[in-house]
Amino acid sequence: MSDAPTTNPCEACGEATTDALARTVRLSVDRANIDTQRLCPECFADWIDRYQSEMSGGSEDADGGSDSEIIVD
Length: 73
Ligand SMILES: [Zn+2]
Prior knowledge:
The chain contains 1 helix and 5 strands; from the N terminus they run E-E-E-E-H-E. Strands 4-3-5 form a 3-stranded antiparallel sheet. By secondary structure, it is of the alpha+beta class. The chain is elongated and about 50 Å long. It has a domain at 7-55. It is 23% helix and 36% strand. It starts with 6 loop residues before the first strand and ends with a strand. The longest helix is centred in the C-terminal third of the chain and has 17 residues, at 41-57. InterPro entries: DUF7569 (IPR055991). Residues 54-73 are annotated as: Disordered. This is Small CPxCG-related zinc finger protein. It holds the Pfam family DUF7569.
């Protein structure tokens, strides 16, 4: 009946983003899901950028106690 694509706002910028384009990122630490965000392609690229620079350039966790990863659907 309806052939309109499912559209929901990006959680970062609020712009309407179709499901086909949206990316859902899940940040999990120690296998606990701590953050899930539905992002448009632009915000997704931003998010990944920020995450990677935080992970590589930020403070070093000497004991390596936290095991964090991102999952992208
Ligand atoms: Zn966005």
